[in-house]
Amino acid sequence: MKTFAIAIIIALAALAADAASAQAPLSPDDVRAIERGKEVYKVKANCQFCHKWDASGDQGYGGNASSLRKTFLNEEQFAEVVRCGRPGTGMPYHDQFAYTDKRCYNITSVELGRIMPPIGEPLQRRDIEAVVKYLFTKAVGRGASTYEECVEFWGQDTRLCEPMKK
Amino acid sequence: MRTISAALLTSLLVATALTPVGADDMTHQRALSVAKEPHNWLLHHGNYEGWRFSSLKDINTDTVKNLRPVFTVALGGYESGGRYKHGNLQATPIVENGMMYVTDGWGSVYAIDVSNGRKASIKWKFDPGTDRAWAGDVACCGVNNRGVALWKDKVISVSLDGRLFSLDKATGEMVWERKVADPAVAETLTLAPLVIRDIAIVGVAGGEYGIRGWIDGTDLNTGKQVWRTYTIPGPGEPGHETWKDGKERYKHGGGSVWVTATYDPETDTFYQGIGNAGPDWDPEYRPGDNKWAASVLALDPTTGKIKWGYQYTPNDPYDYDEVSEHPIINARVSGENRKLVVHVARNGFYYALDRSSGEFILGKQYVDELNWTTGLDPATGRPLNYNPNTDVQEYRPGSHGSRAKPKSDRLCPSHYGGKNWQPGAYNPELNLLFVASIEGCNEVETVEQKDFVSQGGTVKPRERFAGGAGRPTERLYGSLKALDPTTGETVGRLRLTYPNYSGVLATAGNLVFLGQYDGSFSAHDAKTLQEVWSFNVGTGINAPPITYSVDGKQYVAVLVGSRQPQNLWNYAPELRHTSTASMLYVFGLQ
What pTM does this model have? Predict the structure, then answer.
């Protein structure tokens, strides 16, 4: 009886938590993770250098980077690309031990040869989870970026955002 | 009455003796005679002729073994901004009577008292408050500033977000600022100003973002513009006919200017290297030779009027930007006294031109490997694979991408050059040019460039406008080379572990100094190029060294602090975890 009651309480609590996450503001932990993910995107891994501040993609010295706002990958697949890069393109890998064993696409650097992706800034699992959370909250599937997003990203009303003012 | 007058006269004399009016002012006459002040480093390239040579020789091939760091100074400027994780140091220090003036990448100016040979102190700092996100987002290749100029009792500097400043040399107080370049259309300023008489000459960076390049003169007395000359000619100007698209694409034709020019006082002409055409890697977008991209222009400093131009790589499909310095040398070539302006080009060739007419005299390959053309026409200096009957140059088939076949084969030298912006040096006693080069190859890829919105396309101002990208495919390395400027022969060569981005200093002590990506700072015997001394500063070096003396003691100074771009780590993984810093290192004999 007692066990049953506890199980119900846990189940109810879980339901309540689900409902909360669907409607209520993000938890402090989520907010912190998103903030950290932004820092990884903006500075630590410098993803914005190729993908642009709003993740809309760009061309440049690093190659031609895709729009992450329009990605069709789910979070898990996306995290895999951050960890492993994309062989044959300019998208770097960020797990510094990728291709030392078969953790990425079940293949090693020797087998990849010339299509080995470039080395990126080494990121820990926590960084990768954070940057994925950040992008899926702030960019993926959101259409064209806005003036408000620009000011939020840069933390100030830099003149960079001005042309986006409606 | 007479007594009063005498007292007044005496006090005036005393005052004059104590504050000799203009004794330290940087005048035109003084700029022309820097050789009389070997203890100072007064001009960006050492002298107007662009030699980066010092007659100081206490530090020489015999004594250099006793060279040690004597003090260091931590600077700022490595803050992130725009698309950059940190700023870099690329400035050439200016030294005048024990005071040194340097900049960081965001354009802060530091006046450093180096008169005490054991420690230095920052006397003042001027932070222009650069809008880092705005400017940093349209800087193609890093957060850079290459240094200041002196004029009268002022320090003249620029910031990445397009402003030119006149600062009080004694206090750092800003006298005026002028907005010269506009980051709203992706224009930035990174070069050290060139001052000729009372005019400060600067040029615009932004060749990967659809700018139309220009060179600009400011009257330093008023802070007002006196002239602006576009490097990409408009309708009615000579060279405009080399833009054959018929769609006014010259308006975004590139031709940026980001390295300080050289100056010939005899003919009152300055020689400005001009950057790549825009878009970099889609030459089909811009049929024609695309003057004056990838060229040198000879100009009048008072009016900005173009006297002549010479183009190195017409319809350049490689990004062979020719911004770097054009030294002025008088020499005997084939038994004849010639007045030369020379250039160690990013496209892999050395060129000597007649500096009064722009006539090509000779050219020769100096990089280890060059495959985009089979050589230069001995009469004109045109690449041998240049085809006058086509508007879009192929050069050697496969050496660059095209819309039909976007990926190139192996391109040598890589699109970085050859010699990029990093300055060389000329030792007049040995009649040798010293070049620290980038060696090796890569690949480039074409992506069809879309038009700007104003021309019916989709590209907005500040968006990338490069028509493709470069791609690293192998490990690049570097060389220190000695060239005979009268023949173009490479008479000495030394392989360096890393492609060079610091440039060199030559001294009468028969030494050549250079820095490398891995932090090594080394001195080389000018005759053998062998390394005779080195010290590792523990972070990358991307700035040119200089030398000066205080109280008769010679010093060598260099700014250090950079972390190399990701495209380099791929093939030099040992540099992957290098950290940046922002430091001045000064060395002296112990």
Answer: 0.92
